[in-house]
Amino acid sequence: MREPVFIKRNTPRWQAIEDNPTRDPDELTERYIELTDDLSYARTFYPESAVTRYLNGLAAQMHRGLMQSKREDSSRFITFWQYELPLLFRQSHRLLAVSFIIFFVACLLGWVSAANDDTFVRLIMGDDYVNMTLENIKKGDPLGVYGGSDQATMFLQITLNNIYVSLRTFVLGLVASFGTIAVLFSNGVMLGSFQYFFYEQGLLLESVLKIWIHGTLEISAIIIAGCAGLTLGNSLLFPGTYSRRESFVRGARQGLKICVGLVPIFIAAGFLESFVTRLTLHPAVSLAIILSSAAFIIWYFIIYPIRLNTVRQP
């Protein structure tokens, strides 16, 4: 974006900040976030410009106001989860739909492939896992794999692995989005074949009520991480009116914030898988956890961003 266009586009908002000061800590924090984003952009593309010096002075003034409010740290944290992430995610709903469709189609292909090829599940899941599960089925504990490890160690390993997978899914978006698509596709095929395996053994409902206690959050987060990766990849493929570099910077920032927003989701999923999935729960309790997790994902990542964006429209 050329500097005159950048200035013209944002001057009314900067002027409003100066002409209408506020003492409300939350409003001040929100304005400060927007202003520092502008300042970061200006420092990147117009480092020697007068507008950069102007924004730096205005940001410093607002920072002093935040320090005086004595709520800077807590307000920033709350603002990120309450406003910044949902509003940012609203811009990614189209790519979220694309990520979901890729994953869902891959699940169907995994299911159909497993149904038509007796060796497919072993190819995808591995002989060791299939043999172990078949042995557990004979023992009357088909999902005994979830109870075989120390809970605290399992929680740490699962959480770190899930965070790694989400970051990898995001970073692979650099390969023109195809890397992210490949990760989504492979995970979808694995899930589809995995569920068919239990269906073939007559244990589909039992597996769903067990696995999806943690899987609802875990799979949802992978799809959302796919959205972040597509955001990064599309910023390179389709820069629009921005320069490719500028578009990449914006896409990388947006995608990374989405990934950061997933960390609590993966922590919750890791906790459920390590401490809850292994328990023998009444089906109603399992179903309540699954539906509650699904309701949270749909509300926070889809419904709430739409409502928040509508309310904040001028």
From TrEMBL:
The keyword Transmembrane helix applies. InterPro entries: SpoIIM-like. The keyword Phosphoprotein does not apply. This is Stage II sporulation protein M. Keywords: Membrane, Transmembrane, Transmembrane helix. The chain crosses the membrane at residues 95-114, 163-184, 219-242, 254-272, 284-306. Pfam families: SpoIIM.
